[in-house]
Amino acid sequence: MGKHTGFIEYDREVPLERKPSDRLNDWGEYQEPLSKDRLEKQGARCMDCATPFCHTGIQLGKSMIGCPTNNLIPEWNDLIYRGRWKEALERLVKTNNFPEFTGRVCPAPCEGSCTVAINDSAVSIKSIERAIIDKGFAEGWITPNPPANRTGKRVAIVGSGPAGLACADQLNQMGHSVTVYERSDRIGGLLMYGIPNMKLEKDIVQRRVQLLEAEGIHFHTNMEIGKDIQANQLLVNFDAVILCTGAQKPRELLIEGRELKGIHFAMDFLTANTKSLLDSNLTDRSYISAEGKDVIVIGGGDTGADCVATALRHKCKSIVQFGKHPQLPKKRSLSNPWPEYPYTFSMDYAYEEASVQIGQDPREYSILTKRFVSDGNGHVKELHTVQIEKISDLNGNTFIQEIPGSEKIWPADLVLISIGFSGPEEELLRTFALNQEKQFGTEETSGKYATNIDGLYIAGDVRRGQSLVVWAIKEGREAAIECDKYMMRKFK
Q: Any idea what the CATH number is for the domain that residue 310 is in?
């Protein structure tokens, strides 16, 4: 695939980035695409590796090997190298409903499993994926394609994030009539409100929603199950129901002073900001402002980084991000071999921006928050931390140990908790009379999307727990297949 000597002749290139000093003044995407010629050279780097791990999509313990949607990566890399872009698009959309999303926000486990990456830099798979779909829209190759015939079967999907949209798309293509219910005021779920514009501009999401509508999918916003419509109504009025509501219950940080004002969950911060931005370009002030404040983000993941980038655009006074793990190595450790996803140090867009605006990388490692302290009026003014280290006993058990004398006090007007999600919201489970322990967060393999309630299915983070957009798409696609088989078998 590609040019036989391409990986030797050409170096890896990734999309250009706008200067941090420029992009900090707006909410536009921070990346800019490579030119057509440069992308075709990147496609040429895809080597004839015989067994391409990039599209295997294997879950190995806590690590991911290759693309969960099993994208036909070597095929469309080769087609790009040969300048056959429209054919590359046809291959790409066979396995991925929304490459315009994954091409922007996916951490690219495919690249971690690229054979070239054993001894060199991986093929720029993510960049090529985004370029193919963007060109498809720009050239007018992507148009509404509603099914020629309808089966008469009706499906309700609860939740319009990546799992819900992928599931709706697949079932609609099969000829079923699909209705999507979303409790927010806009369609898109995580894609709309959980990922900031700097990584995924919302007109990209809306463009896809409009395409799905043109193909026959019905969307209803401001519809909360158990409030605006009852679970039993869905189960009676539709042939099947699929829950794709995500894992929206945030993990709590139960320490002294948690009740103080000025302490918020990261997703509340991001959601309110994006909604205000879309509603009024932030003029309505209906968001949690970081302007002029000492901001601390607790949690070292991507959501925390997005909080950093958002606070910087608010013109915060200072910003620090706490992580409980040590700084990652610059190269793979022996315990993280190829073709696993590489856990290595990198400068995300937010940290580059922080280095420009406040003069340093805001991340602090191996740190534990002990307590929040009040200003005397019920608002947080500082938090206390201690450094930690991992130790192992003779039996190989690992423990966290505080380091004596490493206590520190940090000023804080705004604290954002970004330590992940514990699962779906319990109210939803009660509404459908489902048991979380038995139904959610335990399955990591395909083929088990049905629940104990006839005609009720679950997919995405609500089933497997907090995960990636690309996994949500995979789950939505597979749940659609199971749901289709159920309906066609039961309602002949």
A: 3.50.50.60
Assigned token pair, 314: 């608010």
Write down which residue in 419, 438, 470 finishes a domain. 419
What's the chain's length in residues? Answer: 492
Q: Are residues 274 and 414 in the same domain?
A: yes
**Whether 308 contacts 198, CB under 8 Å:** no
CATH of the domain at 76: 1.10.1060.10
pLDDT tens, residue by residue, 289-308: 999 999 999 999 999 999 99
Closest to 315 in 3D by CA, of 272, 357, 257? 357
pLDDT tens digit string along 171-216? 999 999 999 999 999 999 999 999 999 999 999 999 999 999 999 9
The Cα–Cα gap between 160 and 462 comes to: 12
Residue 1 maps to a domain:
no
Q: Is the CB of residue 374 less than 8 Å from the CB of residue 257?
A: yes
Containing structural domain, residue 313: 252-419
Residue 168 has pLDDT above 50, yes or no: yes
| pTM (global) more than 0.90 | yes
Eight-state DSSP code of residue 192? I
Rounded to an integer, what distance in angstroms lies between the CA atom of residue 382 and that of residue 410?
5
User: What are the residues whose beta carbons fall under 8 Å from the beta carbon of 103, sequence distance 6 or more?
Assistant: 126, 127, 129, 130, 131, 133, 134
